[in-house]
Amino acid sequence: MSRPTTLRFDALAAVKDSRARTNGSVSRVRLEEIFGENVFSLQEMRARLPKPAYKAILRTLREGAELDPTVADAVAVAMKDWALEKGATHYTHWFQPLTGATAEKHDSFLSPTGDGGAINEFSAGELVQGEPDASSFPSGGLRQTFEARGYTAWDPTSPAFLLEGPGGAYLAIPTAFASWTGEALDLKTPLLRSIEALNEHTRRALELFGTPVTRVRATMGPEQEFFLIDEEFAYRRPDLMTAGRTLFGTKPPKGQELDDHYFGSIPERILDCMNEVERELYRLGVPIKTRHNEVAPGQYEMAPIYEDANIAADHQQLTMTVLQRVARRYGLVCILHEKPFAGVNGSGKHLNWSFGTDSANLLEPGSTPHDNKQFLFFCAAVLRAVYRHQDLLRAAIAYAGNDHRLGANEAPPSIISVFLGDQLTDLFEQIVNRGAATESIDSGLLGLGVATLPKLPRHAGDRNRTSPFAFTGNKFEFRALGSSQTVSWPATILNTIVAESIDDMVTALETAIDGGKEFDAALADLLTEETRSFMPIIFNGDGYSEEWVEEAESRGLLNLRTTLDALPRMVDEKNGELFERYGVLTKRELESRFEILLEQYFYTINTEGEMAAELARTHILPAVNRYLSEILQAAERADDIGIRIDGLMRQAKGLAGQLDEFTKRIDHLVEQNAELGGDEIHEKVQHMQKNIIPAVAAVREVADELERTLPDDMWPMPTYREMLHIK
Ligand code: ADP
Ligand code: MG
Fold first, then answer.
1. Is the C-beta atom of 157 inside 6 A of ligand 1?
2. How many structural domains does the chain have?
3. pTM surpassing 0.85?
């Protein structure tokens, strides 16, 4: 019987070609020369703008002052000239709708003059305001499609940049996006509002400490993990292309999971690709600093130097976009899903976060933190915020993709706690026990026992990979984000909850001082009282252990295991009030976001359910049928000539049994897919969690067994071994 040629073997053959593929243009460049060349930066503005306009822009950037509308005229002219010189033909308002991706609609600079000619035009009006059709973006009921009007508004605090493709270039202008009624429909607007709240209340605190400043900034440095897979394989995995993750696939044998990939040398094609990603990002002013292999085969990480939160959030979006675009030039597909391969480590995103003035990081403890009252105050404010709003932080990272990671012994547990390390934990224990911290445990120098090696200053705390929220020297690291997630929403929550804590604590101090207390005494009392209440949030132990789950429960910490446990907390009374109090989101805006997140959960699982049923029926089932008929034919022929057929019959029976089970489970999945559980989104998501997820898992269980049973040349899809190990 002739073998059906499987797509898989075409893929393997094609990969040989693409492996040889590099972009050819890998000339050596001086990074400092290309850095920022595609950014309409302050430098460009200084060179191109009239002095008063430049000064006005500077005031907006440095002090958050409102921008004089007449300045926009000058900026529009300069921006257009710069973009045209760089070869741009179009401009776009670049924004972040609630899909989590970025959106852009291009307009040409070209304007016909009426006499057969044309000129390039770009007015202040076009710079400041755009009017995309809002009806195609999620609004969570804030807007009916017949009220489709939406506006984009120029964000002068994030620089415009040039995006280049082989066919041309266009100017991208970062903007906020709101409905005609003024409600935010994007991720940037609340982020900007939360940055403002943190600025306002931190400045009040600094005033009390006698160190007033004009501006406080939240800072972020997000680490991005991702997989790079050969596109020949990816294209032949409809699940990977449609759902972003494999819905079938048997895990590679144990030996291949060894940690030898982590920090291993980066394969050549991958390195070429990463180099080009970095060069593109440098041109866009994104300061990528580190890159390395990650734990899983085929998995890598990149991280920038930290920046202002708003710019860092835009740059994070650009990083994801550029990674995906450039990968294609190398015959690779960049996968940002948090769990593309079952049984293999998933991908996360670490959000390093702090806040500070132009000259100082307010979470820098210094060498004797017990003496640094201002640091203790701000650090306490963060701990208090995390303790009080565990629910919000958990909800900030709750979506279908991340459910595969959280609590799965490779990512933080779904319980929110803070790792502080020995030195700081000791300080807060002193505060609770003695009313003040009077000494700091010395971290000392790390001698390596070899005279020629330097003595390294030791960090005051060891690392703890299991903690969802860790103090790492002079910043906190929120480690539970998923790799595909935008950082804007978690950052918005962090800024807002810390702003609230600082506000509350400053108000308490002011009241005490008004009542006649000395500042130092008032501060000591406040810190003692606050520390006593937030102490349960500090946990330096193993977050993966079973004991922690019990211990956390006895401490009264929340354990919201799944997306559907966590999301509804977002709209609790306390959280609605919080966002309203700091002008970050109205209750309506918050509720609309909740609805959208539920819809996204529904679509994700619904797509997976449909995709799994289709793949099982159209890819896997026919292969199993073919194999069975092959065995039966062999048995028939063997019988004809009197050869023993017991072995063949055993195989046939075994396979027929698996086939029977497989078709039953597929039928069940198909039935479940046909139902939605109700008309309401709240009912539909329950159906997804209760019925679709287990039905997909049941089909997968047999499919993965079949993958281990079928002849290799009959298996229709690229395997984990091929996808993860052929580079
Ligand atoms: P690791 O993998 O050890 O956690 P990395 O060097 O990969 O460390 O990433 C640390 C990230 O933290 C970098 O993006 C860095 O710029 C960022 N970071 C450092 N200081 C701050 C700060 N004050 N605010 C925000 N992020 C910071
Ligand atoms: Mg990290």
1. no
2. 3
3. yes
